[in-house]
TrEMBL record:
Belongs to the DNA repair enzymes AP/ExoA family. Mg(2+) binds at residues 8, 36, 151, 153, 247-248. It comes from the Bacteria. Probably binds two magnesium or manganese ions per subunit. The record marks 248 as: Interaction with DNA substrate. This is Exodeoxyribonuclease-3. The record marks 153 as: Transition state stabilizer. InterPro entries: AP_endonuc_1 (IPR004808), AP_endonuclease_F1_CS (IPR020848), Endo/exonu/phosph_ase_sf (IPR036691), Endo/exonuclease/phosphatase (IPR005135). Its cofactor is Mn(2+); Mg(2+). It comes from Nannocystis exedens. The record marks 222 as: Important for catalytic activity. Keywords: Hydrolase, Magnesium, Manganese, Metal-binding. One of its GO terms (molecular function) is DNA binding.
Length: 261
């Protein structure tokens, strides 16, 4: 089996200082997508060259210490593309790694909060969602199998956050954001975690204040979505809530290695 994992690390250099990265890489995944790397390749230094882990990285062009995604993979990808469009590419939010017939999209979706939590970034967030889905649909049209993993910055249903009624006006649980995820599912993308676990209380992000993680007052906003063509190869999905080092925890899928063939 092949394990493919995603983790919003909330700063890769900080994660390394906490000595949390190497144990996770050694825990079994073969492909690891990181989000919110928040550093350039030069700033990362040796972190970009862990032994036995080929590395690809894209950072935000305009804002140092902002956004960024990275891919650690024991499998050498055939290609890694980061282009979605000029207004998105400057924020360093996307890697499309192709492994044979499999495309792994490592994505840090925008947060809609904006300045002073005014939700003024929601239109940008939704346009990112739509542009990416259009791009991935084209890859599916070429006969490729797509896994979309990352921090989606949206809790889909009430079961996906501890306090839904308190967050009806909060970006990440707005009706228009949840409706966009509905569109993805209607277009043949599947929430792999919910394929195996229908119950409540499973979250991937916790506010760092008020002991939220200890009390499990969180949100499930990190996903691995599988397109219909990839779903038969998915054998398990997990949220690794015991893995510390970030305000998010990793999520993963275990897939049949034939997914690349």
């Amino acid at each position: 089996m092949l394990t493919i994992a995603s983790w919003n690390v909330n700063g890769l250099r900080a994660l390394a200082r906490k000595q949390a990265l190497s144990p996770w890489l050694a825990s079994g995944p073969s492909i690891v997508g990181l989000q919110e790397v928040r550093a350039s390749a030069e700033q990362l230094g040796e972190l970009a060259r862990p032994e036995g882990w080929p590395f690809a990285h894209v950072s935000a062009a305009r804002k140092p210490g902002y956004s960024g995604v990275a891919l650690f993979s024991k499998l050498t990808p055939d290609s890694v593309d980061t282009a979605l469009g000029p207004k998105f590419d400057v924020e360093g939010r996307l890697q499309l790694a192709r492994f044979g017939k499999l495309v792994v999209a490592n994505v840090y979706f925008p947060n809609g909060n904006g300045q002073d939590r005014s939700n003024d970034r929601v239109p940008y967030k939704l346009s990112f969602y739509r542009a990416l889905r259009k791009r991935l649909d084209a890859l599916r049209g070429e006969g490729l199998r797509v896994l979309v993993m990352g921090d989606f910055n949206t809790a889909h249903q009430e079961i996906d956050l501890a306090r839904p009624r308190d967050n009806l006006g909060t970006s990440g649980f707005l009706p228009e954001e949840r409706a966009e995820l509905d569109r993805w599912l209607k277009r043949g993308y599947h929430d792999t975690f919910r394929k195996f676990e229908a119950g409540p209380g499973h979250y991937s992000w916790w506010c760092q204040r008020g002991g939220c993680r200890q009390r499990n007052v969180g949100w499930r906003i990190d996903y691995v979505l599988a397109c219909s063509e990839a779903l038969p190869f998915v054998k398990a999905a997990a949220i690794h809530s015991s893995v510390l080092g970030s305000d998010h925890c990793p999520v993963s899928v275990t897939v049949d290695p034939d997914i690349v063939r």
